[in-house]
Amino acid sequence: MSDYRAPIEDMDFVLQHVVDVASLQQHDQFGHVEATELAGILEEAGRFFSEVVAPTNRTGDVQGSRRNDDGTVTTPEGIPEAYAKLVEAGWGAIASDPEYGGGGFPTVVGLAVEEMLTSANMGFSLGPLLTKGAIHALDAHGSDEQKLAYVPKLVSGQWSGTMNLTEPHAGSDVGALTSKAERRDDGTYGITGQKIFITWGEHDCAENIIHLVLARTADAPPGTKGISLFIVPKFLLNEDGTPGERNSLECVSLEHKLGIHCSPTAVMAFEDATGYLIGEEQTGMRSMFTMMNSARLSVGLEGLAVAERAYQQAVQYAHERLQGSRPGMAKGESAPIVEHPDVRRMLLTMKSQIEAMRCLCYMNAKAIDDSHAAADAEVAAAGRELAEVLTPLSKAWCTDLGNELTSLGLQVHGGMGFIEETGAAQHYRDIRIGAIYEGTNGIQAMDLVGRKLPMRDGAAVGDLLDQAEARAGSLTGELADLAKPMIDAVAASREAGAWLLTNMGDHALAGATPYLRLLATTIGGSLMLKGAIAAQAELDAGASGDRAEFLAQKLVTARFFVEQIVPSAVGLVPSIVSGHDVLAAYRPVF
Known about the structure:
The protein is of the alpha+beta class. It has 19 helices and eleven strands. Strand 1 and strand 2 form a beta hairpin. It is globular.
């Protein structure tokens, strides 16, 4: 079992040199953010999550959350105490609006802090993640009265939030839900129905739980157009805003899951529970998508964060495990397995792709900051468009890689990785959900091809590819030989994108998933090159000591990614353009 150490220098490097966090100071909202001080802030956050939250990861997995006979839920040992310390420290509120008691930092800084929380304990992190989504939905669509009543306590973490979409018969097809909302004379609604897969739906960490629940009124049309969104608190509020009478809702069971055992995944039953309409009737999906879009980037971040922790453990094990000899060693002497080329290949495969994921997720968050904070309408629109394109890439590519890289980390451990006591298997089990929830990765690929690729007739994606091509073409000196693999990847992405745009429908959908992998890998490679250019410039300027070694390793990971990861994605073009015919001909039988 390894301890978690937040990769502060890596995070700060991406913030400074890849996403250019300093440029956010041009927005009045972030004028107070000193980019040079971020490393110190991240250092303190890293200390907190390493010391306070990371030690709960193993206990949370082994003990899990449990439902008691009275419907309450007890989280694993140490979780309520760690949650209380998180609330006291305020790290969960760092990127929230100061009007509600938040720190006012950019989304991208908040995402870096969130990465540390998720690496420390993914199951624990899901509570604050869902609360953040509830804050976004209420801030965007709630009334002034609702914001005042709920958002400050959600921002502080004194109260937590949930998202209630899924029902036993309505998963990805949310429009099939049947939960009812009956109007009452006092303006409230009676909410009745059952919801499943409700993350942190019941627990013992916060003094109130604010459920955001999708339901439909009796006269609503079928499908998603007839859905409304309601605030359904666990405890109704007294006149002074404090939690009062218990609402008519209950956690009837907890799911037994492959991973994230720390996180209580509840089946929630609502029996004429008091609910408060958010916005107008039949606008629930628009409101809920505000919450879901926020969550999708955070779920993508989970792939990065859990892979980072798996990598750290794999590196530690590879240094400690003695097995096999190396040339020049005495007979009978064994070497640490880190000395073997294939183990180094596995570790570098992990490390390079983790760095590429961090670049992509942070760039996505920076685009969100520009979209919300820029006074210039064109800058805001460009940020919004970029965020729309990058979100399915962040969510799907990073969680797919999370699955692959945690598996690779387990492989580094050999047979001991398959044994639970090492903890390597937990990372593999925990992140498996990432590709499934908040819109399966297949849905993300369909969204990319069906909605994002056609934006401006392909120009939204085309602009990203233009930037990648220009960056590759600018390479000189030590990096010049990395131009060709990137230019080839750009050409492959253009070819595949053009084919998809002219073959919409089932043909395009059949190639959507490999296209997402190709495009994300190409953009990831371009961002790795951006970091490599900055690292080389700093080395040329005379960096020395530990900093020089850090920068030299940046060149190593970028080279490996561009030379070995990118070409494998280029090879996906034939599967992208093969069309739907072979799938239509397939007859699955049982």
